[in-house]
Amino acid sequence: MPPARVTPDMLEACRRGDPEAFDRLVAACRDRVYSLAWHLSGSQSAADDIAQDVFVKLLTRIGQFRREAEFTTWLYRIVANTAIDYQRASRRLVPVEEGEPSAVWQAPQQEERLSRAQTAARVRDALARIRPRFRTPLVLRYVEGLSYQEIARVLRISPGTVASRLSRGQLQLGRALRDLAPDTDR
Amino acid sequence: MIRIFRRHVLADLAAYDDGQLDPPRAARVKGHLLRCLACREALEEVRHGRRLLESLPAVTMPDDEVARLHARLRAPAVAAWRLRPLAAVLSIAALAAAAWWVSFVGIRPEIVRAAGPVGLERAAVDLHAQLRAGSVELGLVTDDPARIRAWQRAQGAPVSELASHASRDGWPAITMQGASVVTVDGARVSLVSFDVDGHRASLLTARQADVASAPSSAWLSKRVHYRDAGGHPALTWSTSGQTYTIVSDLPDAGERACLACHTSPRFKAALEREVRQVFGRR
Fold first, then answer.
1. B146 and A98 in contact by Cβ < 8 A?
2. pLDDT tens-digit map of A1-37
3. At CA A64, angle to CA A60 and CA A67, rounded to 5?
4. Cα separation of A107 and A87, whole Å?
5. ipTM computed for the complex
6. Do B12 and A163 touch (CB under 8 A)?
7. Chain B CB within 8 Å of residue A1 CB
8. How many CB atoms are closer than 10 A to CB B7?
9. Alpha-carbon dihedral of residues B74, B77, B80, B81, nearest 10 degrees?
10. Which residue in the set B11, B56, B83 is minimally distant from A120, CB to CB?
11. Which tens digits make up the pLDDT trace of A92-130?
12. B83 to chain A: nearest residue by CA?
C-alpha cells in the first residue's frame, strides 16, 4: 500500500496531539527521511540513527510548525541539520559505506544487480567525500527532486547560490568517478 | 566577445544543463562554451555527475528500522509529548517520572534460573562448540559491529543490537569476530561470534514469533533466563519482538557478554548487582 500523502488536516491533527495522525505522518515521510539521511551521511547505520532522531524532533516540535511554511521544506531542513549534527558528533569525516551485502553471499547470476549496487555504493561513497555545503543541494536536487527555489528555501540561500553549489558539487562528483563515464578515453 | 571568453562559466554549468537559466544568460553561457574547451570539458563532468546521482536506486526504511522507530516513539519519555496539548503540566511531570523510571528501574535486568537448555539455546550450544572447534566458518568476518548489523539487514535476518565500544576502565574488552545466518527449526537466525576478555561467546538472534519456547518480554525490565548448558552459561531473553541467546566460555553467569549490546554504566552496575543477588559472591 503506498504511503499516505501529508495533508493539512493530518498536520493539524498532529499539532493537536493525535497519535494516530502522527503515525500516518511517519508512514508518509519515513522513506523520504531515510533516503535523505542515507545519502547525506553516506552510511546506512548513520541513516538509521539520523532518521530516528528526526522523527523524535518532529514529534516534539510539531507544535512549533508554522502553517505558512511548507511542511516538506521544514522537514528537509530538520533532516539536513540533523545529518550535519550527527557528522559533527561522530567526527566521521569520511564515512564508510556499509550498506551493501558481503560479496561472499552474492550468487553468480546476480552479477548485474551486484554491479549496479557497487556503482551505487561508489557514488554514495564519493558523495560522502564532498563537503556538506555542496553535497546537500546535490541530494535535494537529484535524489529528492526539489526545484532550485525549494532547495533555496530549505537551505536559506539564494537560488543563484544553489545553482553554483550544484555546479561545484556535480563537477567534483563527475571528476571523482571519471572512470565510470561512458567514454573514459578522454 | 573577448570579455565573455575571459570569464569562465563554471558556476552556471549545472543550471545551464538543467535548463534553469534565463534566455540571455543561457545564450551567454552557450557562446562561451563554443570558444572555451576547458568549460566544455567541465560541462561533460557536470553532466556525468548528474547522471551518476540520477542513477542512485530508491531507498526505503527497512522493516526492522520501522519497528525500532515505532518502539522509540512509543517510549514513555517520547510518547509523553503526544499528550502535551491535553495536559501540559501533567505531561512534564509524566516525562520526568518516565525518564526516572526508565533510567533507574526500566533497564533493570532480572535473572531467573531455569532448567536445562531448550529450543534456541540448544542450537546456540551446538554452534558455539562448532565455532570453537573451527568446524564452521562465519559468513562475514569483521570486528565492526555496525558492519555486522548492516550485513544482517542485507541478508534479511534478525538484526542484533550490537554496540560500538570504546575502551573504558572496568569494562571488558569486547571484540567482534563476525557473523553468519543459520536456520534453526526452519527460521532464519543471526549468529554473532565475539570475544569478551579473551573468552569466546556466541549470540543467536531470532524473531520471537519463530521461537517456540521464547521467554516473554517483561514490562519495563529485562527478564533473563539463565541455564547451565553443559558447563557453559546460557542467557536467554526477549525484547522488542526478538529473542536472544548467548552461550559463552565466560565464568559465572556469563553476564559480561551482555555488554556487547549495552554501553550504559548504569545497566552494567544493575547487571552486576543482579548477578550478586541471584548467585551470591562467586
1. yes
2. 445 678 888 888 888 878 888 889 999 999 999 999 9
3. 130
4. 35
5. 0.82
6. yes
7. no
8. 10
9. -90
10. B56
11. 434 334 444 333 333 444 455 557 788 888 999 999 999
12. A17
